[in-house]
Design goal:
With 210 residues, this protein is α/β, with parallel strands linked by helices. The protein is 40% helix and 22% strand. The strands form 2 sheets. A 7-stranded mixed beta sheet has the order 3-2-1-4-5-8-7. Strand 4, helix 6 and strand 5 form a beta-alpha-beta unit.
Length: 210
């Protein structure tokens, strides 16, 4: 899928306004500009940024629980999916309380710059996930961050009592799930990625330590 096709698919599926479209384009411009200086996305993926990164992030939005009011994006890096979620929320869920957690100071500065330039309402926490104060989030998301067992430990720290995890995973997700089950009782809903034939989204509700 080309980037033009990916953009049209996003617009059709998300039913977004011109303002949201322009914000997504402005974010992509900032992401490409800053990637020349710091490692926000792989340089080999910049030509497919809409497909590989933006579409990959937008697919989480319809999977959120209807009651979700607090969202934590762990290890936000260049803002994928956190900034994309913020852009969609600005039009469709203005009351969403969104936190982007990123321990790298340079990446945190980028996230703060994006919020300021695009007029987005999210909080940036520049701390390690395992040390930060619990967020009590209804939704916890992460993309290309850590093995599943580690993500579950971090999610346990930061989710609300009935919180949901939305975790983007690649082709090794089954191996990660097997390893995680040595420490966790977990039965995720496995959802096929719409941007990567080998990728999935793990939607996880109830889980607990073995």
């Amino acid at each position: 899928m080309g980037d033009a096709d990916a953009l049209q698919r996003i617009l059709a599926e998300m039913d977004v306004s011109r303002e949201t479209t322009e914000r997504l384009k402005a974010y992509v411009d900032l992401l490409l500009k800053w990637t020349k200086r710091i490692n926000l996305i792989g340089k080999g993926t910049t030509a497919e940024i809409w497909d590989r990164h933006i579409l990959d992030s937008t697919q989480l939005w319809p999977l959120r629980p209807p009651h979700a009011r607090i969202w934590l994006d762990m290890g936000s890096g260049g803002g994928l999916p956190g900034v994309v979620i913020a852009i969609l929320a600005a039009e469709q869920a203005r009351d969403l309380d969104l936190t982007l957690m990123e321990s790298d100071l340079r990446k945190s500065v980028f996230l703060q710059t994006v919020a300021r330039e695009l007029g987005l309402a999210y909080r940036v926490v520049t701390e390690r996930i395992e040390n930060a104060a619990p967020v009590k989030a209804d939704v916890v998301s992460a993309r290309a961050l850590a093995p599943l067992g580690t993500l579950l430990a971090w999610t346990e720290r930061h989710r609300a009592q009935n919180g949901t995890a939305l975790l983007l995973k690649g082709r090794r997700y089954q191996d990660e799930l097997t390893e995680a089950r040595a420490l966790w009782h977990v039965e995720p809903e496995v959802i096929q990625s719409r941007s990567d034939p080998s990728g999935v989204i793990l939607r996880i509700g109830d889980f607990r330590r073995v």
